[in-house]
Amino acid sequence: MSLKVWIDGRLIDKADAKISVYDHGLLYGDGVFEGIRIYHGKVFEAEAHLRRLFDSAKAIRLTIPYTAAQLKAAVDETAKANHFTDCYVRLVVTRGSGYLGLSPTKCPTPAVFIITDTIELYPKELYEKGMAVITASIIRNHPNALSPRIKSLNYLNNILAKIEASDAGVPEAIMLNHDGNVAECTADNLFIVRGGVVQTPTTHDGILEGVTREVILTLCKRLSIPCQERTLQRHDLYIADECFLTGTGAEVVPVTKIDGRQIAQGEPGPITRRLIEAFRRYIKESAEG
Ligand code: PXG
Protein backbone atom coordinates (compact mmCIF):
# COMPACT_ATOMS: atom_id res chain seq x y z
CA MET A 1 0.00 0.00 0.00
CA SER A 2 1.36 3.37 -0.94
CA LEU A 3 1.97 6.03 1.70
CA LYS A 4 -0.74 8.71 1.82
CA VAL A 5 0.02 12.39 2.07
CA TRP A 6 -2.59 14.88 3.26
CA ILE A 7 -2.86 17.87 0.93
CA ASP A 8 -5.53 20.46 1.65
CA GLY A 9 -8.05 18.01 3.00
CA ARG A 10 -7.38 15.10 0.64
CA LEU A 11 -5.30 11.96 1.19
CA ILE A 12 -3.14 11.44 -1.88
CA ASP A 13 -0.73 8.64 -2.83
CA LYS A 14 2.88 9.64 -2.16
CA ALA A 15 3.75 9.33 -5.87
CA ASP A 16 0.99 11.81 -6.78
CA ALA A 17 1.48 14.17 -3.85
CA LYS A 18 2.72 17.28 -5.65
CA ILE A 19 2.92 21.03 -5.13
CA SER A 20 3.12 23.59 -7.93
CA VAL A 21 6.49 24.93 -9.13
CA TYR A 22 4.84 28.35 -8.72
CA ASP A 23 4.41 27.77 -4.98
CA HIS A 24 6.27 30.45 -3.03
CA GLY A 25 7.31 27.86 -0.47
CA LEU A 26 9.57 26.48 -3.20
CA LEU A 27 10.40 29.74 -5.01
CA TYR A 28 11.27 31.76 -1.89
CA GLY A 29 11.15 29.47 1.14
CA ASP A 30 8.03 31.45 2.01
CA GLY A 31 6.17 29.35 4.55
CA VAL A 32 6.35 27.69 7.95
CA PHE A 33 6.39 24.14 9.24
CA GLU A 34 6.47 21.84 12.22
CA GLY A 35 8.28 18.56 12.79
CA ILE A 36 6.20 16.52 15.21
CA ARG A 37 6.28 12.98 16.64
CA ILE A 38 3.51 10.52 17.20
CA TYR A 39 4.31 8.08 20.02
CA HIS A 40 2.02 5.17 20.88
CA GLY A 41 -0.71 6.59 18.65
CA LYS A 42 -0.75 10.04 20.24
CA VAL A 43 0.59 13.33 18.87
CA PHE A 44 3.40 14.35 21.23
CA GLU A 45 3.05 17.88 22.67
CA ALA A 46 0.41 18.69 20.03
CA GLU A 47 -0.61 21.96 21.64
CA ALA A 48 2.93 23.34 21.81
CA HIS A 49 3.66 22.44 18.18
CA LEU A 50 0.41 23.94 16.90
CA ARG A 51 0.91 27.09 18.96
CA ARG A 52 4.40 27.53 17.49
CA LEU A 53 3.08 26.91 13.97
CA PHE A 54 0.43 29.61 14.35
CA ASP A 55 2.95 31.98 16.00
CA SER A 56 5.43 31.44 13.14
CA ALA A 57 2.66 32.02 10.57
CA LYS A 58 1.55 35.20 12.32
CA ALA A 59 5.10 36.54 12.34
CA ILE A 60 5.38 36.16 8.55
CA ARG A 61 1.83 37.48 7.94
CA LEU A 62 0.52 34.13 6.74
CA THR A 63 -3.04 33.18 7.57
CA ILE A 64 -3.46 29.43 8.00
CA PRO A 65 -6.82 28.46 6.47
CA TYR A 66 -7.56 25.89 9.22
CA THR A 67 -7.99 25.98 12.97
CA ALA A 68 -5.51 24.26 15.27
CA ALA A 69 -8.18 21.63 16.03
CA GLN A 70 -8.69 20.95 12.32
CA LEU A 71 -4.94 20.54 11.77
CA LYS A 72 -4.64 18.23 14.77
CA ALA A 73 -7.49 16.10 13.36
CA ALA A 74 -5.77 16.09 9.95
CA VAL A 75 -2.51 14.87 11.51
CA ASP A 76 -4.39 12.06 13.27
CA GLU A 77 -6.23 11.18 10.06
CA THR A 78 -3.00 11.01 8.03
CA ALA A 79 -1.19 8.80 10.54
CA LYS A 80 -4.22 6.54 10.78
CA ALA A 81 -4.50 6.23 6.99
CA ASN A 82 -0.88 5.03 6.96
CA HIS A 83 -1.36 2.70 9.96
CA PHE A 84 1.33 4.52 11.94
CA THR A 85 1.27 4.50 15.72
CA ASP A 86 4.85 5.79 15.98
CA CYS A 87 6.10 8.16 13.33
CA TYR A 88 7.42 11.55 12.38
CA VAL A 89 5.02 14.18 11.08
CA ARG A 90 5.93 17.06 8.80
CA LEU A 91 3.17 19.70 8.80
CA VAL A 92 3.86 22.40 6.21
CA VAL A 93 2.05 25.62 5.35
CA THR A 94 3.34 27.50 2.31
CA ARG A 95 2.31 30.90 0.96
CA GLY A 96 0.79 29.01 -1.95
CA SER A 97 0.98 29.48 -5.72
CA GLY A 98 1.45 32.93 -7.18
CA TYR A 99 3.47 34.81 -9.79
CA LEU A 100 7.23 34.96 -10.28
CA GLY A 101 7.58 37.91 -7.95
CA LEU A 102 8.11 38.13 -4.23
CA SER A 103 4.77 39.65 -3.36
CA PRO A 104 2.62 37.29 -1.31
CA THR A 105 -0.43 39.40 -2.22
CA LYS A 106 -0.50 37.44 -5.50
CA CYS A 107 -0.76 34.14 -3.63
CA PRO A 108 -4.43 33.85 -2.72
CA THR A 109 -4.42 30.41 -1.08
CA PRO A 110 -1.80 28.94 1.27
CA ALA A 111 -0.99 25.28 0.60
CA VAL A 112 -1.14 22.95 3.59
CA PHE A 113 0.23 19.44 3.57
CA ILE A 114 1.06 16.71 6.07
CA ILE A 115 3.61 13.94 5.56
CA THR A 116 3.86 11.08 8.04
CA ASP A 117 6.89 8.82 7.77
CA THR A 118 9.63 7.16 9.78
CA ILE A 119 12.69 9.13 10.86
CA GLU A 120 16.09 8.30 12.34
CA LEU A 121 18.25 11.39 12.50
CA TYR A 122 21.30 9.84 14.16
CA PRO A 123 22.60 6.26 14.34
CA LYS A 124 21.41 4.36 17.44
CA GLU A 125 24.87 3.78 18.93
CA LEU A 126 25.38 7.55 19.33
CA TYR A 127 22.72 7.53 22.06
CA GLU A 128 24.90 5.15 24.07
CA LYS A 129 28.35 6.47 23.18
CA GLY A 130 27.62 10.14 22.66
CA MET A 131 28.52 12.12 19.58
CA ALA A 132 31.22 14.49 18.44
CA VAL A 133 30.19 17.93 17.18
CA ILE A 134 31.93 21.07 15.94
CA THR A 135 31.09 24.75 16.18
CA ALA A 136 30.28 26.09 12.72
CA SER A 137 31.73 29.27 11.21
CA ILE A 138 28.26 30.10 9.83
CA ILE A 139 26.30 31.96 12.51
CA ARG A 140 22.59 31.64 13.22
CA ASN A 141 20.34 34.21 11.52
CA HIS A 142 20.31 37.62 13.18
CA PRO A 143 16.97 37.88 15.02
CA ASN A 144 16.24 41.18 13.28
CA ALA A 145 16.85 39.64 9.85
CA LEU A 146 14.84 36.46 10.24
CA SER A 147 14.06 35.48 13.80
CA PRO A 148 15.24 31.96 14.63
CA ARG A 149 12.05 31.74 16.70
CA ILE A 150 10.16 31.40 13.40
CA LYS A 151 10.21 27.83 12.11
CA SER A 152 10.30 28.92 8.48
CA LEU A 153 10.83 26.95 5.29
CA ASN A 154 14.17 28.71 4.80
CA TYR A 155 16.83 26.53 6.44
CA LEU A 156 19.81 27.57 4.29
CA ASN A 157 21.52 29.10 7.30
CA ASN A 158 21.38 25.78 9.14
CA ILE A 159 22.09 23.72 6.03
CA LEU A 160 25.38 25.57 5.49
CA ALA A 161 26.36 24.75 9.08
CA LYS A 162 25.30 21.12 8.54
CA ILE A 163 27.65 20.94 5.53
CA GLU A 164 30.49 22.16 7.76
CA ALA A 165 29.66 19.34 10.18
CA SER A 166 29.70 16.85 7.35
CA ASP A 167 33.05 18.19 6.06
CA ALA A 168 34.45 17.72 9.57
CA GLY A 169 33.13 14.15 9.70
CA VAL A 170 30.66 14.75 12.54
CA PRO A 171 26.85 14.48 12.51
CA GLU A 172 25.95 17.92 13.87
CA ALA A 173 27.24 21.48 14.25
CA ILE A 174 26.75 24.04 17.01
CA MET A 175 25.88 27.48 15.70
CA LEU A 176 26.87 30.70 17.47
CA ASN A 177 24.78 33.85 17.24
CA HIS A 178 25.64 37.34 15.94
CA ASP A 179 27.24 38.20 19.31
CA GLY A 180 29.44 35.11 19.19
CA ASN A 181 27.46 33.38 21.93
CA VAL A 182 26.11 29.85 21.69
CA ALA A 183 22.73 29.55 19.98
CA GLU A 184 21.78 26.00 19.03
CA CYS A 185 22.53 23.19 16.59
CA THR A 186 21.19 22.96 13.03
CA ALA A 187 18.05 21.07 14.11
CA ASP A 188 18.44 20.68 17.88
CA ASN A 189 18.71 22.82 20.99
CA LEU A 190 21.80 22.53 23.16
CA PHE A 191 22.26 21.96 26.89
CA ILE A 192 25.36 21.69 29.06
CA VAL A 193 25.81 20.60 32.66
CA ARG A 194 28.43 22.22 34.89
CA GLY A 195 28.73 21.74 38.63
CA GLY A 196 25.43 19.87 38.69
CA VAL A 197 23.55 22.76 37.02
CA VAL A 198 21.82 22.19 33.69
CA GLN A 199 22.24 25.22 31.42
CA THR A 200 20.81 26.19 28.04
CA PRO A 201 20.85 29.41 25.99
CA THR A 202 17.93 31.79 26.55
CA THR A 203 15.22 32.42 23.97
CA HIS A 204 16.94 35.75 23.29
CA ASP A 205 20.20 34.13 22.24
CA GLY A 206 18.86 33.46 18.74
CA ILE A 207 17.31 30.02 19.04
CA LEU A 208 14.19 28.17 18.06
CA GLU A 209 12.16 27.66 21.21
CA GLY A 210 12.22 23.91 20.95
CA VAL A 211 9.32 21.83 22.17
CA THR A 212 11.74 19.16 23.39
CA ARG A 213 13.83 21.84 25.12
CA GLU A 214 10.72 22.94 27.03
CA VAL A 215 9.99 19.34 28.08
CA ILE A 216 13.57 18.99 29.39
CA LEU A 217 13.22 22.22 31.40
CA THR A 218 9.99 20.82 32.91
CA LEU A 219 11.67 17.50 33.71
CA CYS A 220 14.58 19.28 35.45
CA LYS A 221 12.06 21.04 37.70
CA ARG A 222 10.24 17.78 38.41
CA LEU A 223 13.46 15.98 39.28
CA SER A 224 14.76 18.96 41.29
CA ILE A 225 17.81 19.24 39.03
CA PRO A 226 19.01 22.87 39.14
CA CYS A 227 18.50 24.42 35.73
CA GLN A 228 19.24 27.80 34.18
CA GLU A 229 18.49 29.53 30.91
CA ARG A 230 21.55 31.68 30.36
CA THR A 231 23.88 33.05 27.72
CA LEU A 232 26.71 30.62 27.03
CA GLN A 233 30.06 31.23 25.37
CA ARG A 234 31.97 28.69 23.34
CA HIS A 235 34.38 28.35 26.27
CA ASP A 236 31.48 27.21 28.48
CA LEU A 237 31.02 24.29 26.09
CA TYR A 238 34.67 23.28 26.24
CA ILE A 239 34.74 23.18 30.05
CA ALA A 240 31.31 21.56 30.48
CA ASP A 241 30.92 18.39 32.57
CA GLU A 242 28.20 17.13 30.23
CA CYS A 243 26.50 18.20 27.03
CA PHE A 244 23.40 16.99 25.19
CA LEU A 245 21.13 18.04 22.34
CA THR A 246 17.33 17.98 22.19
CA GLY A 247 14.94 17.93 19.25
CA THR A 248 11.87 16.26 17.84
CA GLY A 249 13.92 14.11 15.47
CA ALA A 250 16.94 13.60 17.75
CA GLU A 251 15.03 13.37 21.08
CA VAL A 252 17.85 13.62 23.68
CA VAL A 253 21.33 12.79 22.41
CA PRO A 254 24.56 13.02 24.44
CA VAL A 255 27.56 14.98 23.13
CA THR A 256 31.01 13.80 24.20
CA LYS A 257 33.36 15.85 22.02
CA ILE A 258 33.24 19.49 20.88
CA ASP A 259 35.81 20.91 18.42
CA GLY A 260 38.20 18.08 19.31
CA ARG A 261 37.85 18.65 23.08
CA GLN A 262 36.61 15.65 25.00
CA ILE A 263 33.72 16.50 27.33
CA ALA A 264 34.45 15.20 30.84
CA GLN A 265 35.24 11.46 30.67
CA GLY A 266 34.21 11.18 27.02
CA GLU A 267 31.01 9.32 27.76
CA PRO A 268 27.42 10.42 28.45
CA GLY A 269 27.26 11.96 31.94
CA PRO A 270 24.97 10.98 34.84
CA ILE A 271 22.55 13.91 34.54
CA THR A 272 22.27 13.40 30.78
CA ARG A 273 21.45 9.72 31.37
CA ARG A 274 18.88 10.62 34.00
CA LEU A 275 17.19 13.07 31.66
CA ILE A 276 17.19 10.57 28.77
CA GLU A 277 15.42 8.09 31.08
CA ALA A 278 13.00 10.74 32.34
CA PHE A 279 12.24 11.79 28.76
CA ARG A 280 11.40 8.19 27.81
CA ARG A 281 9.07 7.95 30.80
CA TYR A 282 7.48 11.29 29.93
CA ILE A 283 6.74 10.03 26.39
CA LYS A 284 5.05 6.96 27.86
CA GLU A 285 3.04 8.95 30.39
CA SER A 286 1.91 11.46 27.75
CA ALA A 287 0.66 8.65 25.53
CA GLU A 288 -1.23 7.03 28.40
CA GLY A 289 -2.57 10.24 29.98
N1 PXG B 1 16.44 24.25 16.61
C1 PXG B 1 16.18 24.16 15.28
C2 PXG B 1 16.82 25.11 14.36
C3 PXG B 1 15.29 23.18 14.82
O1 PXG B 1 15.01 23.09 13.52
C4 PXG B 1 15.03 22.40 17.10
C5 PXG B 1 15.89 23.41 17.50
C6 PXG B 1 14.40 21.52 18.13
O2 PXG B 1 13.04 21.89 18.32
P1 PXG B 1 11.92 20.82 18.71
O3 PXG B 1 10.69 21.64 18.79
O4 PXG B 1 11.89 19.81 17.60
O5 PXG B 1 12.33 20.26 20.01
C7 PXG B 1 14.71 22.27 15.74
C8 PXG B 1 13.77 21.20 15.27
C9 PXG B 1 14.56 17.50 10.40
C10 PXG B 1 13.93 17.91 11.68
O6 PXG B 1 13.81 17.09 9.52
C11 PXG B 1 14.25 19.14 12.25
C12 PXG B 1 13.67 19.54 13.44
C13 PXG B 1 12.79 18.70 14.05
C14 PXG B 1 12.48 17.47 13.46
C15 PXG B 1 13.06 17.08 12.28
O7 PXG B 1 15.78 17.58 10.26
N2 PXG B 1 14.03 20.76 13.95
- The rounded Rg comes to 19 Å
Helical content (DSSP H or I, runs of 4+): 25-40%
Mean pLDDT: 97
Question: Count the helices. How many?
Answer: 8
Q: Which ions, cofactors or small ligands are bound in this entry?
A: 3-[O-phosphonopyridoxyl]--amino-benzoic acid
Oligomer: single chain
Q: Roughly how many Å apart are the termini?
A: 32 Å
Q: Any idea what the CATH superfamily of the largest domain is called?
A: D-amino Acid Aminotransferase, subunit A, domain 2
CATH architecture of the largest domain: Alpha-Beta Barrel
In CATH, the topology of the largest domain is named D-amino Acid Aminotransferase, Chain A, domain 2
Number of strands: 15
Strand content: 25-35%
SSE pattern: EEHEEHHEEHEHEEEEHEHEEEH
Structural class: alpha+beta
* Low-confidence runs of at least 5 consecutive residues: none
Topology (elements, then pairings):
Elements: E1 4-7, E2 10-13, H1 24-28, E3 31-39, E4 42-43, H2 46-59, H3 68-81, E5 87-94, E6 111-117, H4 125-129, E7 131-135, H5 156-167, E8 172-176, E9 182-185, E10 189-194, E11 197-200, H6 211-222, E12 227-229, H7 234-238, E13 242-247, E14 251-258, E15 261-262, H8 270-288
Parallel strand pairs: 7-8, 7-14, 11-12
Antiparallel strand pairs: 1-2, 1-6, 3-4, 3-5, 5-6, 8-9, 10-11, 10-13, 13-14, 14-15
Helix pairs in contact: 6-8
Bound molecules: 3-[O-phosphonopyridoxyl]--amino-benzoic acid.
3-[O-phosphonopyridoxyl]--amino-benzoic acid (PXG) binds at residues 35, 158, 184, 187-189, 208, 210-213, 246-249.
